[in-house]
Design a protein that fits this description.
Layout lengths: L2 H19 L6 H17 L2 H12 L4 E2 L7 E2 H14 L12 H6 L6 H8 L4 H11 L9 H13 L4 E6 L13 E6 L1 H12 L8 H16 L3 H9 L7 H11 L2 H15 L14
Antiparallel strand pairs: 1-2, 3-4
Helix pairs in contact: 1-2, 2-3, 2-4, 3-4, 4-7, 6-7, 6-8, 7-9, 8-9, 11-13, 12-13
Length: 283
């Protein structure tokens, strides 16, 4: 199987997976439809449709934590699109236009000011685009301010999500059924670290900070997605360091956060069913 066909199959199965598991909330149908559009963009290598979808997602507010992964947001959907465009090397084919994403995609890799604007964006998809642009520039032409920003992203980027991580995966092959575990990942930190290593700038990763940020993100999502967050915590891998982080934060929680952290701990310690989570489960 060619690398191109392998990638298409992987994206197809990702779309299928999300279509099947995101079925509990009012936004699930909309998300499934967006993944279908991404799949079509992938099959057709259609940069025009990709830009239209990117601009459309700028005007949506999506947050869906179903399926124990994510959350899936308008930003994460945009990030998926950018990664598809990067994989098929379509990013550099975009011309500057009147819309936002055409302008962002057409930024020249050598334009330090615009690259820094991308890297400083609150949108992780834009930060990832900036990182991808940097990979197209020779190290000798990289400004020191870019190196400093890459270091900051490697150690502190806030985009930390729950994902399925392969266990004992053979390189170049998809994970076998059941050979995955749920845990936190930081895709932009990994990307920035890879770039720094390529440039000979070895910067240590801060795994503790990763889990601190992951739990903080769960706290942010908790108020509007309580059941989904608790179920996602329950499904975390038993050896995840997130479990230690929740224990530590519970011991330090003030009165305002104590109930929430008790619920996080309850989700860790009990065999729970999503549909059986009630307002009093933590007691």
């Amino acid at each position: 199987m060619s690398k191109r066909n392998f990638m298409k199959k992987m994206i197809f199965f990702a779309v299928l997976f999300f279509s099947l598991c995101l079925n509990r909330s009012a936004s699930s149908n909309e998300i499934a439809e967006i993944y279908k559009q991404i799949d079509k963009i992938t099959a057709e290598n259609d940069i025009g449709k990709a830009i239209i979808l990117l601009n459309t997602l700028d005007n949506k507010e999506i947050c869906n934590f179903n399926g124990t992964l994510g959350p899936v947001t308008n930003f994460s959907l945009q990030l998926t699109i950018i990664q598809v465009l990067a994989h098929y090397k379509l990013i550099n084919n975009v011309r500057q236009d009147s819309d936002m994403w055409s302008n962002l995609l057409s930024v020249k890799p050598e334009n330090t000011k615009e690259i820094l604007n991308l890297l400083n964006s609150t949108n992780p998809a834009r930060r990832w685009l900036g990182l991808n642009k940097i990979t197209q520039v020779e190290f000798s032409k990289i400004d020191q301010s870019i190196i400093e920003k890459l270091t900051s992203i490697t150690q502190n980027d806030e985009y930390v999500i729950i994902s399925r991580i392969p266990i004992n995966q053979r390189e170049g092959y998809p994970p076998l059924p059941g050979n995955t575990k749920n845990d936190f990942i930081a895709p932009l930190r990994e990307k920035a670290h890879e770039i720094l290593v390529k440039f000979g700038e070895e910067i240590p990763k801060d795994e503790t900070n990763l889990y601190e940020r992951g739990i903080l993100n769960l706290k942010i999502y908790y108020s509007g997605n309580r059941k989904e967050v608790l179920y996602a915590i329950y499904r975390l891998a038993k050896d995840s360091k997130a479990r230690l982080e929740i224990t530590k934060q519970l011991s330090k929680a003030d009165l305002n956060e104590k109930k929430m952290m008790q619920e996080f701990m309850w989700a860790l310690e009990n065999n729970i069913n999503f549909n059986e989570i009630t307002e009093k489960n933590h007691n």
